[in-house]
Amino acid sequence: MRSIFLLGVVLFLLLRGFRSPFLFVLAYVWASIFTPQQVAYSIISSIPISFIFAALSFGSVFFLKKVDYIKWRSQSIIAGGFAVWMTVTLLWAVVPEAAYFKWDWAVKGIIFTIIIPNFVRNRQDFEAFIWTILISGMAHCIAFGAKVMLSGGGYGVPLGLVAGNTGYGEGSTLAMFSVSLIPMVMYLYFHQTLLPQPRFVKLMLVTFLVFSLLSAIGTYARTALVCLVVLASCLIYYGKRRLVNVILVLIFVGVIYPFIGAGWADRMSSIDNNSEVSAMGRVAVWKWVIDYVKTHPWGGSFDMYRINSYTMDLPDGSVLTVANKAFHSIYFEVLGEGGIPGILIFIALIGVTIMTFMRHKKILEATGELWLGDAGRYLLISTLVFLAGGVFIGVAFQSYFYYLVALSAAYINLGKKYEHA
Asked: Fewest beta carbons within 10 Å, which of 23, 35, 143, 284?
């Protein structure tokens, strides 16, 4: 039944997309985050949904009407350069088969996001894009959060929408993602215009916020605590009414407190434990990556972590040995796979995205559009949460970050449009 329903959704988006090509883009975003092939049991599990919508989106670009404010921004140019460089690294990949497998989805995803700003032409498009990210992500958060309410959650417990320890089925990744969605929830709460019945929509968004918090806490991932601290700090610092945001943060704490058990507190207390095997295992991998890049400045291409082997003395006198251990950090992931050129391009992409959203006050002054000014503020917070959580999880090539990059390019375009309106 689930497969039939999802097939119906795909067919609906496919048919409607020929009338409004932007739906092809939104469908791709939905498919990349919701991952219907992993949710369905049959029928669509073998259909290349993302490829179909990507191909139709690229084809639609040539039929878009040209307007002055839609231009190739630095975000798209840098992202394109990043995709090219990471493709070049395949020439010296240390694990060729695994490298090509990861390249097949990672680089294609980056390239797709380059064309997204061409489709975002007004407030409704911009809002629809954020709604698509949110609803696709909330499918994971609601499924996980509901089970947390019943079972209390736990580290490594498979409560998510998808099986396995990859993508949004991995606890730390889901924790970061769910916290990063909260600023989007808040933005839509104050400014959404697409959906009717505003009171019902606001109630729904409050529910989304609660499930996002439950998902983050229920994973028992220490990444969640880091992301929540960054979120709270940013809401207070960037908020227009700081006292109100302090109260809001306290409400957040009140919502999640009943679901914090002794097990959760014990795991969080180990975040600074220099002898904790999981945490120190990450440090060992990071040291190995640094040593590797010293002799291989161009990197080892995708999935090069598979060749790692490192021994490190721990403060308690024991010896820790890691082998074939994943990066557990977006920064060391890019450094190891893309080398020095790769990490420099990646940092440039991060910098441009952050600086764009940090212009929210100037754009508000230039356009007089409160919704546009607030969009930059809330999306900046979402980006900072991702970057903070990314210190501890290897999701540098997952699509979510590049959607934020695409939104920042579209943000500039819309700023130019409404500035001259």
From this structure: 143
Residue type at 130? I
Residue 26 domain-assigned (yes or no): yes
Residue identified by tokens 């559009």 is 369
E strands of 250-406, at which residues? 309-313, 319-323
Query: Can you tell me the mean pLDDT for 48-77?
Result: 92
Percent helix / strand / coil, the chain, rounded to 5: 75, 0, 25
Q: How far is residue 191 CA from its own chain's centroid?
A: 22
Q: How many CA atoms lie within 13 A of 183 on its CB side?
A: 28
Q: pLDDT tens digit string along 154-212?
A: 666 666 777 667 778 888 899 999 999 999 999 999 999 999 999 999 999 999 998 99
The closest of 295, 407, 323, 317 to 360, measured between CA atoms, is 407
Beta pairing partners, 309: 323
In a domain, 355, yes or no: no
Q: Which pLDDT does position 396 carry in this prediction?
A: 95
Instruction: Find the domain containing 41 and state its range.
Output: 1-64
Residue 272 pLDDT > 70: no
77-87 residues labelled b (16+ CB within 10 A) or e (exposed): ebbeebbebbb
Instruction: Judge whether 291 lies within some domain.
Output: no
Please say whether the beta carbons of 335 and 296 come within 8 A: no
CB 190 within 8 A of CB 116: no
In a domain, 43, yes or no: yes
Q: Is the pTM of this model over 0.90?
A: yes
